[in-house]
Structure formats: C-alpha cells, structure tokens
Design a protein that fits this description.
Chain A: InterPro entries: AAA+_ATPase, ABC_carbohydrate_import_ATPase, ABC_transporter-like_ATP-bd, ABC_transporter-like_CS, P-loop_NTPase. The complex is a heterodimer of chains A (516) and B (321). Chain A has 516 residues and is α/β, with parallel strands linked by helices. Chain A is 34% helix and 25% strand. The chains are: A alpha/beta (516), B mainly alpha (321).
Chain lengths: 516, 321
Amino acid sequence: MTSDGNPDLAIELRGISKAFGPVQANKDISIQVKRGTIHGIIGENGAGKSTLMSILYGFYKADAGEVLIGGKTTPIPDSQAAIDAGIGMVFQHFKLVENFTVLENVILGAEDGALLKPSLAKARKLLTDLAQEYEMDVDPDAVIEDLGVGQQQRVEILKALYREADILILDEPTGVLTPAEADHLFRILKGLKDEGKTIILITHKLREIMEITDTVSVMRRGEMTATVKTAETSPEQLAELMVGRKVLLRVDKVPATPGETVLSVRGLRVVDDQGVERLRGIDLDIRAGEVLGIAGVAGNGQSELLEVLGGYTQGTGTITMNGEQIDLTGTASDARTRRARGIAHVPEDRQREGLIMDFGAWENVAFGYHHSEPFCRGLFMDHGAMRDDCAAKMERFDVRPPDPTLAAKNFSGGNQQKIVLAREIERNPDLLLIGQPTRGVDIGAIEFIHQQVIALRDQGKAILLVSVELDEIMALSDRIAVMFDGRIMGERLPDQTDANELGLLMAGMTGKDAAA
Amino acid sequence: MDFLDIIQILDSSLRLATPLLLACLAGLFSERAGIFDIGLEGKMLASAFLSAAMAAYTGNVWLGLLAGVLASLMLAAIHGVASITFRGNQLISGVAINFLASGLTVVIGEAWFGLGGRTPQLEGAARFHEITLPFADAIRGVPFLGPIYADLLSGHSILVYVALACVPATWWILSRTRFGLRLRAVGENPAAVDTAGISVVGLRFAAVMICGVLCGIAGAYLATALSAGFVKEMSAGRGFIALAALIFAKWRPWQALGATFLFGLLEALGNRFQSLELMGIAIPTQFMQALPYILTVVILAGFVGKAIPPRAGGEPYVKER
C-alpha cells in the first residue's frame, strides 16, 4: 500500500502498535516530525518512547502501522533499511565494540569493499572532516574503552553521520553526561539542525525539552497524548501530560534542624579488585536531621562510598557511627552488622543489589531482617507474619499492585523502589544510605519517594544521598558534597550554589581552575 | 641426544600438532564470533570416521576428505541451529555433538564393516602420503639447514602444509578483511553489529561453518594421513586439547601455532621416551603420555596468565526485552 504523505515531513508514523507478550508498549501511535527541526519525545519510563524509536530504526518490528519517510511509505524490516532511509540512532546504551578503535567502529557495516585498508583510509579522511565541522574532537585511533562516555557518544553520532544520516534519533543522551558535556552535545545538535538535519530527542528531563526542542510529543502508557510547540507550553503542563495529573515539581521542605553528628568518616580509602584506588581519602560528617547530597558523574567513587558504608566492600580509614568506631575490614564489617548498628541502605542498583527479582515482594521486604522478629521464630521463617507485614508496608507506601506474592520483576521501577524503601525506612534506622533513589522511576513515584526522604529527615534521621541527577541533589540536600576521582572536591550549600559551579566541581575543577 | 634426534622429535611434533592446529583454528573462528564450541572433538571424530569409510569404499582419499568435511559440516550446522537460531546453551549443544559422534561412528562402523568399529586398513590412493619438497634430497647434505629442510620441513602429507598455510590466512582474514572485522565485532558486541545493519545470525553461521570445514580437515588428517584407517575414539581428546591451546593462544592465530606445536612436542616426547630416567628416578611411561593432558588442565585452570575471551562469547544474542 502506498499512500502519499506530506514531503515536508521528515518522518510520519501512522498507527504504530507493538506488544511484548501481554504488555502493549505502543498503542496506535501517530506522529509527524517536520524536516529540519528538533522534535522532543517525552514520557515516563516505560511509556514506550524507546520502543517507538527502536521500531523506527528497524530494531523491533511493529505489529501494525506504517512509516513514511519524506512523504513516502517506507517499510523498515531491519536496521539496514533504516540506515538506507537516512536514519541514524544513538542508543541509550551505546552500541560500540569496546576493544575496537573509533575508526573501526565507525566503518563497521559501512565498509567500502572486502578489504579493510582502503575503507579505513577513506573513513579517516571523512571522519576528520566531520569532526572538524561539528567540533567533535575524537582521536580516530583511540580504543573505545579508553574513552569517556561523552566521547563515546560523539563516536555514535559520527557513526550516524558517516552513514549520511539525515534524521538522527538520540535516546536519553544526557543521562551519562556532566552538565558541561550536555551543553556541548546540545551545541552539536543545534549545528546539525542548522545543516538541515532532523533530530528526534527522547528524554524524560523537562529542562532539556524546554531548552532545545522546537516541538514536543508526550507519551503516556504506550499512547501519544499530545504534540505541542515547545514555545507554547510549560514544564508544568508537560509534566501533567506525562503523568496524567498535576505534579509537584519542587520538593516542599522546611529548613533542616541538624542535631548531633551521626556518621563521621575520616581518611576513607578503597582499593578495587584491579588495584585501582577508587576512594582516595574521604572526610565527611552527617548530622541527625539533615540530608547530605553527594553529586558527581557516575563512576567517581560514589558507588564505592555507599558499598563501604553499607558493608559490602572493605576499606581503610575510620568511620564512627553514633560515637562508636565501625569495623572496616574484620568479621564485623559485613552488611548485617551495619544494619544492626542502625545503617539502612537503599542500593544504587535496585535490580541487582536491592531486590531478588524472581522472589515475591513479601520475601524481598524481609531480606536483611529475615533473621529477626517478627519474621523468624527459632529456626523457621514465619511466612504468615512476613506476608502480613508486606501487605501493611505496601499500603503505607502505595505500592501498586498491592499484591505481596507478586515477583519483584513484575513491578514497575517506581514500585520496586518503593518496596526497597519500605523495607529500609520502616526499620527506623539512624542513618539511611540512598543511592540513585529515582533512577528509572516515573515522575509520580519520584514525588512520593522525595517526600518520604524529607519526612525521614524531619524525624531526625541522617541521610546520605548519592545521585547523578543534579536537580535531585539540589532539591533534596541540605548540604552538597561533590565527588570527583575518589575525592570530595568541595562542599556547598544548595541555596548558595548553582548547576554551573557544581558542574565545574564534578569535572574536577576547583574554583581557582575555573577562574584561571 | 644428537642433532638428528632433535630433528626427528620436532618432525613428529609437527605431524602430531597438525590436527590440533586445524581444530584450534576452527575453534578460533567460532569463538571469535561469540559461539563457544566444545564440539570440536565430536566433529573431528565424525570426519575421521566418514573420511576413512569413504576412502575405503572408493579408494580415493580426496573423496574421503570431502566426505569427512561434509560430516563435520553437518554437525556444525546442528550446533548452529541449536545455539544461534534457537539460542540454546552452547556448551550443552557441544556436549551433545560429542556424544552423538562418539556413539554413531562406532555403531555405523560396525554395521558397515563389522570390524568392531574400525574401518578397513587404508592403502595406496586411499591415504594421504608424504610429499617431498623440491630439492630436498639435493640439500640434505648441507650442514644444519639441510636436515632441517629435508627431514623436518619436507616429507609431510599435503594436509600438514594446508594447516600451516591456514595460520597466516586466518590472521589475514581476521585483521585485514571486512568479514574479519565483522566477525570479531559480533563476538564482542553483537548489538553493535545488529544496529549497523548486519545480520548477526548470518555472520555467526558463517563462522560456525568455517569451523566445521577446518574440523573436517583435522578429522580426515587423523584417519587418512596420521593413521591408515579409523579406530574408535581416535580423536582421543584432541578437540579439548585444541580448546586449551586456543585459550593459551588468547584466541590469536600465530599464538595458536605456537601453542599447538607445544602440545605436539609433548606428545612426541611421550611417544619417544617410553621409559625415561631422570636423576636416577624412573619416570613411568604413563606420565610421559599424560603430559599433554596435564598441560591442558594446568592451562584451563588459568595458570598461564589472564586470557580474556571474546566478550559476547557463549551468550546467545537476544535483542533487549
């Protein structure tokens, strides 16, 4: 079937549907993307944004619907067809061969002939030209695994440009970037737009949508709920469209009233399996009734800090909890002893460290405390008590569906996080370690989780918050410490700093470097 | 031990290393594409049997070689369908192929020839014979280099030279051609290959088939060149030794040559020194003959440095979700 569309539209999707088993990821989606614009697609996690774009790139096959490119019906059975149609995609998780060079990655699949040498020579020339044109400096001979994520992302963009893509899709491109890198990316995208290329930006960050897009489409639960001009909308309106109800974007909180020091860390060092020093002498204090936020780009030692405090990595230095020194290497350095001391931990990776995905919610809610009352009687577990306890917690934390026997993997990201949070908070800890509390969590649940954290603070508990989302750190923290390369670069008060200053610290520059 | 003894030991090492080298390169193609293959052993065995059987029927060793390669290709195709198309467990598929080959060769052999699983003794044109390289006799008299050329390099069956030629060929294909780049990429990150618009399934099947051809040659060499006929279980764990050599060689062709030659040398030493006295202690024959297997265990236990396998090795490719 050939149907004529508007040739001014770079892409038109008509009635796209896609189901994964019983889950309807995309329901009858239609969208029009004008040539030469930056078109945002926003929606909560699981709204179906990535699925829709993967269909457009030929990575998944749609169950129904058609794709029009430049006004012509274009079937896209596989990625090769998408590339031929001038579509390039930068996935959220990069599709690069880690131990290949930049050049090899760029030509993979787009070689000129059976022999590599001429292809590589030609690609090197073209790549240098492209890199200059769009100020994307990358060494063509660098090996991917030696590059930072920002650079790897540029390689992905270059890959698409090398294949002469006219339409570039970027899936959550700023999740792994520092604010400065994100700004650089947006400059590149604007340059591409000026060249007449069409860009589709998938994100869940309202700020980015407002900053860079011309038009924005909102998705909710697999459906396209609205498409509006960015200039004619507001973050509040978009948030409402995403969630389907009014959302409080700010966190309401009263000023903190910090009490005694709960946790005191001095000269903390951690060396990993490869012999690399991941923490290089951390000093910090957290008092009762305050939230200390740790900002930083992922991989600068925040994870190790949480792990050593939570008791599943060993380190050197001293940690004092409520005035008593904590064992860092001996037999009492395990997570169970930490819990007994009043340290609760909501790990960064809830699917790997926070939950056992195949186990029921009622079992997951008991983990870590399964050896104590009321879950345990002598040698045996009291399943009835565990289920009742889980049901009660699910009600208080608004976990949906409120079914204790459902396996953890069958809950959405936000509800999984609520299960972990319920387990840790309800044990009344003195200190809560919480890592990436809202990663992969939808806006509605973010609001709830933030309220819980602040409520815990107001009960006089100490909270150590680690997050790569600067907005979250700014919103929740009473003090902000910035980590870079295993060190704390500095501490700031949220009302006396801004994203720029924190961004510089996150990139390892102190105030002096920035001024120079 | 004089110079000629050393030449003789090296000569026999080369003979014994040849099937290992072919199987090792076979495994290299498969594993660099991300498909683990512990069925090298079974493919060699099946090829050894069918090549010997065909050579015995027709009296033509080349037809035997062809039949052997086809047998090996068939098992490779089964491995491909199980582990690529149906995304099954590659180790289990490999184990199944080994059992299948081990049982079928004996059962069919007994049905066809009634010699207790053996094939008839191969003679004349039904076997690969040693070929003498040009000028071998003329140069033999030259001191040192003469014997190396005439006695060590010359006087092997054509398949030995084929195996040796496969080493630079494999290196060239992997590092210098488009196919090689894609093959290495699919073993490291199949998603990168898929999103670049190349068929992951097609590439992996190609690699598994190349593996089948090389295993087929290795098996035919065992039955029609190294020996004169098929004997049950004649592959004798060589497929597994080749795997150990592959790890030892860190999945690289030139290193594979070195590693398999080392195993060949150990086997040759074991054969030559049936009884050996070292510093007054008699070393049992069994120990000497066990040397290659002992080295295999040592290598697989990771005593020879860190070997990093292809990152997507052993994992069926499934798009996310």
